[in-house]
Amino acid sequence: MDKKEKNTLSQGIFTNLSKDIPSGIVVFLVALPLCLGIALASGAPLISGLISGMIGGLVIGLLSRSHTSVSGPAASLSAVVLVAIQLLGSFQVFLLALMIGGLIQVALGFLKAGGIADYIPTNIIKGLLAAIGLILVFSQLPYAVGVEIDDSRLLDYSQDTFTGFQERVQMVVSSIAPGALVLSVISLGTMIFWDNTPLKKLKLFPPSLFVVILGVALNQFFKLFVPELFLDGVHLVNIPEISHFSALFTFPDFSAINDGKVWTYAFTIAIIGSIATLLNLEATDNLDPHKRRSPPNQELVAQGVGNTLTGLLGGIPITSVIVRSSVNIEAGAESKLSTLIHGFLLMISVLFLSNIINLIPLASLASILLLVGYKLTSFHMIRQMYRKGWPQFLPFAVTIIAILFTDVLLGVLIGSSISVFFLLRSNFHNPYFIEATNPSSKKKTIRLELSNEVSFLNKPAIKRTLWNLPKGSKVIVDASFSSYIEPDIIEILEDYKQTFAIENNIDFSILGMGENFTAKKKIFLDRKDTQDRSDLNAPHKILNFLEEGNKRYIDGDLVSRRYQNKKLKDFIKVDPLAVMVNCLDMREPLNMLMNTGIGDLIPLKVAGNLLDNHLIESIEISCRNQKARLILIMGNTSNKLILASLKKLVEDPDSGISPLLVPAIKEKFLAPDQLSKANLVEWTERLMTWNLAYSKKLILTQNSYLNYEISRGNIGLCTAIFDRKSGKIDFSPLYVSEKVTNNNS
Known about the structure:
Blueprint: H1 3-13, H2 17-42, H3 46-63, E1 71-73, H4 78-88, H5 91-110, H6 122-145, H7 165-174, H8 178-192, H9 207-225, H10 260-287, H11 296-313, E2 318-320, H12 322-330, H13 337-352, H14 354-357, H15 362-376, H16 379-387, H17 390-405, H18 408-429, E3 432-437, E4 445-450, E5 453-454, H19 459-466, E6 474-478, E7 484-485, H20 487-503, E8 507-511, H21 539-555, H22 565-571, E9 578-582, H23 590-593, E10 601-605, H24 613-624, E11 630-636, H25 640-651, H26 662-666, H27 680-702, H28 704-711, E12 716-722, E13 729-731, H29 738-744
């Protein structure tokens, strides 16, 4: 960071004191019980949570480039810490793993690994959070009910999870502390119904802090008036009184540097902590009302430095935390000054308020974490994941179970492997789009359109499909939309074409092989869309091109004409081929029906194919300015608009004549007394054909430019009828004027 950036940063920090100072106080009030609670959940000394809170606020707050993110002890790593302390044998050895993990995070930041979180599927992250929620619930239940068994751990993670579970249940029931149970019920009820009470208006008084103060007050009340409910000793927070600053710290045991478990947990802390930080950072940036973006690699370096220090001084792992960050934003924070203030206040509380902090019942802190655990593992979230289907739900569920029975890192890896399995399975089944046409004919046409990228993962599916196609069929493999095809796949296609297809009388062709492949791997074939557009310079050639395109559509031999967006703009600079007039009733895609490319056709829609002056002028502009060389007026069978107009005239003649019928009646082609319910369908087809001829006549008689260009053969004019049942388009011959004929003769 240069001098100019430092000056700008310092100005930014101190420009919103009226917002940042109150925000820092609010975050401190929220962070104090959470620091203690997460240390409690982690099985670490309670003072370690406060040390991490101080470092997260002061050190990471200075190094981070985020304006609103707040760092502190991580609930997402509490299960890792709980297991690690037990398996490593001492808190001091764990501190060594944490310090090494911090150094790994610094390295990840310098290696620009900030995008690592983008590669973890959302269902795995949700499974991780749900598992952490369950572990929080399991580990906090003894504190919530005041049970003392095996160092107050309900589940001993150094042994099989459910070993001796029945005996533990009996011990729990027989050793419940009534006072802890009462405090837990009151605390949980207070937090659950907080928003339904007037207390929610106290912005500087979060529910977690209220519960802690309430717990202290009630326990002192029990001491005076209900002694049998009073909690003391192991049921209270126990922070040693700080006589001097150095007494705060515990230092790592460097003699365990060669222990493989230390390095395993170091990598676990670094990876899980980095992922949690990056996810929380993204969420915090989305909550920021100014939508400022925080550099992820700089954040990893800041978190790594923070975790290295907290490992050296006796803390627990730190990440960016969404709870404190969201509180910070809601309180109106504008800069990182609020984060620094919250860290400073935590340090003051540790140095001078330890006697007061030691009055807090563990049951009150456990209640806060029980509610956090429940929210992380909510039934609503589980149901939501289930509704997304097995490819989403199964990796989610496996991640939860694997974390509960192993550890966080291994559980995430197991869940991710299940997710990768579904990804491979999806690639196995979806390397192409397959379409079968002409099922009633003797020679069935099967078209396989390959996806954008076809890799070796798609090899089994393509082989299975090709070698199971029926004998005597016509097979078209369309690679027009593929940007890359694995050489192994090309070799399969070559083998199939040269041997299996010949021996089984399969008419096999491939479309779209081109510059993406090496010369040795090219497959040369008769591609049917290789006509040079420069040859389409005359109306009769364009008409032939459209007729051939419709034949391809009927035969199921379409050429893929999809183009990448970056090529689209250049492609539509080419002059259009034809302007097409068709009825509003027709919704079938014109480009597909005639197998044309993007921009080849200028479509004009009009009810019943009846033109007026405005539409004829639009046709003139299409030909004069946009250089279309063919005018095609196309009707369609089973025209619902014409049928509805005829039906209304028969059933309710007094309601007036539809404009779609007026020209035919005026020209004496149609008389109302000719109609009956029995012949409406017949008259619909006749009137559709008559409208085409009428509109063609209007073009020739009402527009001198079009009449002149058509008479000279520069512009073509014809009609066509689209048969909805067969998909076939019957094109009429191009109109040729007598003048042109005589001159030519």
